[in-house]
Amino acid sequence: MTPSLPPSRLQRLRLQRFRLLPYMAKWIVLAVLAGALAGSASALFLFALDRATASRLAHPWLLWLLPLGGFAVSWVYLRCGRQVEPGNNLLIDEIHDPKQVIPLRMAPLVMGGTVASHLLGASVGREGTAVQMGGALADQLTLLLRLGHQERRILLMAGISAGFASVFGTPLAGAVFGLEVLAIGRLRYDALPACLAAAVAADRVCQLWGAHHTHYAIPAAAIPAVTAWTLAALVVAGAAFGLAGKLFADWTHALGGWFKRRVAYAPLRALLGGIAIAAAAMLPGTGHYLGLGIPTIQAAFVQPMPPWDFAGKMAFTIASLASGFKGGEVTPLFYIGATLGNALSPLLQLPFPLLAGVGFVAVFAGAANTPIASTLMALELFGAEVGVYAAIGCVVSYLFSGHTGIYRSQRIGNGKHGHGERAPHALRLGELAEWRRRAGKESASEE
Prior knowledge:
CATH class of the largest domain: Mainly Alpha
Strand order of the largest sheet: 1-2
Strand content: under 5%
Order of helices and strands: HHHHHHHEHHHHHHHHHEHH
CATH architecture of the largest domain: Orthogonal Bundle
Number of strands: 2
Number of domains: 2
CATH superfamily of the largest domain: Clc chloride channel
Number of helices: 18
Structural class: mainly alpha
Largest sheet: 2 strands, parallel
């Protein structure tokens, strides 16, 4: 027989369960409030984005205003938004090392800058905008309710989850994204209830406002049986997706750094970048690389696409982000992944809707170091039948992308392999190259 617990210990356990109730109630209320704010902001943003995209398509001449628009947005940030210029990286830094509440002006600045970028034709996304709005709005509750550092961390993570979930209509992926994006190889489960509640609330509120999300479908006939060949082919595809994510992240940071060294004045960088992008868009067959590119993503699921489409979108997006245009990286990564998967289909002898769907999430998984959230996104968007293939693609992509990523403030919790495992705890991705250089010099001097 199992010995019974002493009465005193049993009483303590019961008391702990009762204490859990007000704790859960508190965080559900806070998370739902943060989710409602983020969902409402995302709905407004999606409406504005639709109008901006429709206007650009109806008036192609707007593209020639891209340099002036970039100059204007960068000038406004220079005058009023220097503190919030780091965007998503600022949110990650504040969660790891809380210092001060994020200014509320982050939300209108990033939304206005992103809508202007899409109106005039920059190749940027929307995730960064929604995440920044969600985080900034959630953080205002810190002042209102006088929350401590630990509570603020959880609330910021909930705001990130809410923004991601509401802009894509994927609450499960959004909940895990807020936990997973902070550090490679480490999750903070203390924030899981708040992130889940905020993500679900934000998604529902966004839909209640009437916002709609793009639907993608992988036909059942395009999902083959699980065999040794299909699994091996997915591993090969996952490696290609991871390398694409790594190239995107590395080249975006490299070009951005080069541009900053050559042109110190930020508005001038956007002006010059806008001129280059507008000129490149005049070349035949390049117009679909502007904006979100959702029609091309949808086409990748239903018909063969030109094999160079992923490279064209990558070039336009890297140029847009590196020169300072506001927006996100995720939807362009969806584009790159879907079209790359489509191009790999005949080589790997797999249906192109399947590889387009796996690439859609796997390139993002490698570039953002979020394989779990990306796999959940595949389940929410495409259905459970694609789960095994999506998981393989995302995990392999995550491994092959190495210790790099689109978020330079992301920490290394547990490295994937090699050098990352020996790096100091909580080292930023943006500091890894310098750490490796110093470590190499120290090793050489010891020898």
